[in-house]
Write a structure and sequence with these properties.
- The chain is an alpha+beta fold.
- Helix content is 46%, strand content 14%.
- It contains ten helices and ten strands.
- It has a four-stranded antiparallel beta sheet with strand order 1-2-3-4, with helices on one face.
Length: 333
């Protein structure tokens, strides 16, 4: 999730655990700092763009290492007072950071150093005001309310609402996936994998990507489905996947690495300058994707560092379209 959300979650968790044992401003500040620490790994340059992508949310987001770090941070903050409570508070702040990240589609390596599997539920977008605002309001109320007990209750309410929203997102995601799979079956499309992720900033409109059973199939399918679509049929669009390029270069390190990290949701193409381009299909919308990488000429893939090529849709028109489509309106992009 975005930094503001992690700050808000860290503060809310720390305030809830510490309660009256310390000043609210101190627990909120310590929670905010600890809640941002795992993301400092983004400052590390691993040598090329694909490595930087797949190694973000790795060791710094591992439950094992964060558990080891918690008592150290607690010792620095507690200074001999309420050490065990600070330990619990900061441990919860640290581990809820990667657990929340796991709710996005990116991929979080929770089980390092024992496994590098990237977990990603994909039920919330990286920025979602409906999740973040209850946390901010709850912490602000706890900080500013003259009645401390009332303020702490507001903080708990904020945590409860934000957690309930995550639960809603999972249920909505499952509902959309069932609709999408039924629609694919009706149209005779055999999908090996179906990815369901929310469009930006909300959980009513969902993007669905279906990969074919046959790895050599040249197409993948994309659709947008709203929870409020009612009985409207799902409208699928087929797009080129570059299967021949993916198969030809499957053994090359950058292609293999991104394919594994994205659970196979990739496409290949030849860029205008002749380089092989591989794209993570999970984040973006056709033809605009955040994580596309140029790997060099097809006969020299892997010999030079991968470079990232991002393409984003126009913000204003896209947000207006989402604002209409999320309510079930059949507007065109």
């Amino acid at each position: 999730m975005d930094s503001l959300t992690q700050i808000a979650l860290g503060s809310a968790v720390c305030v809830a655990v510490m309660g009256r044992r310390t000043a609210v401003w101190k627990s909120a500040l310590c929670g905010a700092v600890a809640g941002t620490l795992p993301d400092l790994d983004a400052l590390i340059d691993h040598g090329d763009a694909i490595s930087n992508m797949v190694l973000h949310r790795a060791e710094s987001h591992a439950l094992f290492f964060l558990t080891l770090a918690a008592p150290v941070f607690a010792w620095l903050v507690a200074r001999g007072r309420d050490f065990m409570r600070w330990w619990l508070a900061l441990w919860l702040v640290l581990v809820t950071h990667p657990l929340l990240d796991t709710m996005t589609v990116y991929g979080t390596q929770l089980l390092q150093p024992f496994s590098n599997y990237p977990f990603g539920v994909g039920s919330v977008f990286i920025i979602d005001p409906a999740y973040t605002l209850p946390l901010i309001i709850g912490v602000a109320a706890a900080w500013r309310c003259r009645d401390l007990a009332r303020g702490l209750r507001w903080n708990l309410v904020g945590l409860a609402l934000s957690t309930a929203y995550l639960g809603w997102s999972v249920l909505a995601q499952q509902h959309i996936e069932q609709r999408a799979r039924a629609s694919l079956s009706e149209q005779g499309v055999f999908a090996q994998q179906v990815l369901v992720t929310p469009a930006p900033l909300q959980t009513l409109l969902w993007r669905v990507v279906a990969l074919p059973d046959d790895p050599a199939d040249p197409k993948f399918h994309e659709a947008y489905v709203s929870v409020l679509d009612g009985q409207y049929p799902v409208q699928w669009e087929a797009h080129a996947r570059g299967s021949e390029l993916l198969i030809e270069h499957a053994a090359s390190a950058p292609v293999a690495r991104l394919t594994a990290f994205s659970h196979g949701f990739v496409k290949g193409a030849i860029a205008p300058d002749g380089q092989l381009r591989i794209t993570d299909l999970r984040m973006g919308q056709e033809p605009h994707y955040v994580f596309s990488f140029d790997l060099g000429l097809p006969d020299a893939v892997g010999q030079a560092p991968a470079t990232q090529v991002s393409a984003r849709p126009p913000v204003g028109p896209t947000l207006r379209w989402i604002g209409q489509r999320m309510w079930g309106q059949r507007s065109l992009r």
